[in-house]
Amino acid sequence: MPLLRYFFLAVVIAVITVVGLAGLRGTAFHKFSRPPIELVPDMDRQAKFKAQSPSVFFGDGRASRMPVPGTVPLENPVENEYLSTGRMGDRWGAGFPVPVTPALIARGQERFQINCAICHGATGAGNGMAKQFGVTTVASLHQDRLRDMPEGEIFHTISKGRGTMGAYPHIKLEDRWAIIAYVRALQLSQNAPADELPENLRAKLK
Ligand code: HEC
Predict the structure, then answer these.
(1) Which of 23, 56, 161, 184 has the least CB density, counted as fewest CB within 10 Å?
(2) 150 Cα: distance to centroid of ligand 1 (angstroms)
(3) How far apart are CA 120 and CA 128, in angstroms?
């Protein structure tokens, strides 16, 4: 079958030619100083400004831009470790790094209803609207495990997400703490011992 033999020969010669000319540039097997041959331009090399370099495009001549006013930092390098991470050393901290006031709880209620209620429900029972649209793993906030969870760990859950819950780092730090204060209020609302009620309400209960 000479035809087949010629075909194989042609393939072998083609491979040797390509590897001979192009080498193994840009592959993981060989370290070449030269970039790989690109048939379609690669995004590694593109028109861009490097940090701190000049630019004639912007009026102030700088390529680096200041953040847009109102930008929310994802990681806030504030002094207070607990306020920004929920950690105290190598463990979750408990308590609030900001004063818990009626105003804070009211702010937390508003932020909770905007950010959390869609999944967790207005009372935190885990029955928000998203459940009807297939987000079935939403946790109820009224479980002993979450009642006992340190505030710092809840802060971390909001900031970084947990399991099937996404992260909400765009919520301002103080607002995250406000939300946690409101979560505590919700938890108390569903699980308050009767003898902690004021006299008149306790009478109503009977
Ligand atoms: C898009 C839906 C969604 C939103 C919005 C959402 N969560 Fe969740 N959350 C979940 C799901 C799903 C879980 C269960 C995660 C798991 O166990 O995998 C969860 C779990 C939790 C838990 C328990 C974590 C644990 O340790 O088990 C807390 C606390 C919590 N969410 C608080 C919040 C707060 C506060 C907000 C608002 C800032 C919020 N969530 C917004 C879906 C959501």
Answers:
(1) 56
(2) 15
(3) 5
Write out the two tokens for 196. 């902690």
Burial of 115 (0-12, 13-18, 19+ CB in 10 A): middle
pLDDT at position 49 over 80: yes
Is residue 157 in contact with ligand 1, taking CB distance under 6 Å? yes
Does residue 152 carry a pLDDT above 80?
yes
Distance from C-alpha of 142 to C-alpha of 23, rounded to nearest angstrom: 63
Whether 165 is in the pocket of ligand 1, judged by its Cβ within 6 Å, is: yes
> How close is the Cα of 124 to the center of ligand 1, in Å?
10
Q: Which residue has the tokens 């765009």?
A: 170
Ligand 1 atom at shortest distance from the alpha carbon of 163: 18
Per-residue pLDDT tens for 166-206? 999 999 999 999 999 999 999 999 998 888 888 888 888 87
Q: CB-based contacts of 52: which residues, under 8 Å, 6+ apart?
A: 63, 64
d(CA 76, CA 84): 7
